[in-house]
Amino acid sequence: MSIRIDDIAGEVLSRAGDAKRFLIAVAGPPGAGKSTMADNLAAALKAKGESAAVLPMDGFHMDNAILIERGLLARKGIPETFDVRGFLDIIRAVRRADQEVLAPVFDRSRELAIASARPIDPKDRFIIVEGNYLLFTQGKWAELDGIFDFSIMLAPPIEVLEERLWARWRGYNLDEEAASAKVYGNDLPNGRLILENRRPADVTLEIALA
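== Pantothenate kinase ==
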C-alpha cells in the first residue's frame, strides 16, 4: 500500500488525540528531503484545520569562527558542529507549550545562523522538528530519545543522496572541486553515520512525500 502525506497527517492526528502540544521529528541524512517533508506535513495538518509550525535543527549550527578555531570548518554538519545543549533547551521549552519560544534559523546562502528568527507560538499544536540528528543514538543527541511524540525517518538510497547533494552545492555556485569536497568529504560520510546510528522511527520512507 502506498503512503501519502495525508495518510501520515491522519496518523499524526489519531496519535495526538486532544494533546495541547504534539512534537513530530523528521530526521534523515543531508539531501534526504527533510525540509520538504516537514513543510508538506505542516500544510497537510493546516488543511485539516490544525495549527502547525516547523522548527529546523539547522539553526543550531556553530558559528564558522568557532569551527575555524576548532579545525572543524571543513566538516561543518557533523554532530560535533552543532550547539546541542542549546537545541535541547529550545526543544524542551517548546515541549512545555507555556510561552512563545524564539528559535534560530540557518541562512545557507550566508552560512550562518540568525538568532531568534522563528517564533513558535504556544497555540501551535503541532511542532514539526526537522534535522539530521533527531534520532541519532550517539553523544548528547541521545537525550532526544523519548521527547518526540511521532517520528519520521527519511532514508533514500546513497546514490539518490549523492545526486541531490551535487545539485545542492552546484546550486550555490561551487566549482566541481569544492562541490566534490562537500559531497564526498562531508555530506555522504555524515549520511552513512546517521543511517547506521539511528533509533527506530514510527515511519521510515525513501522519499519525502508531496
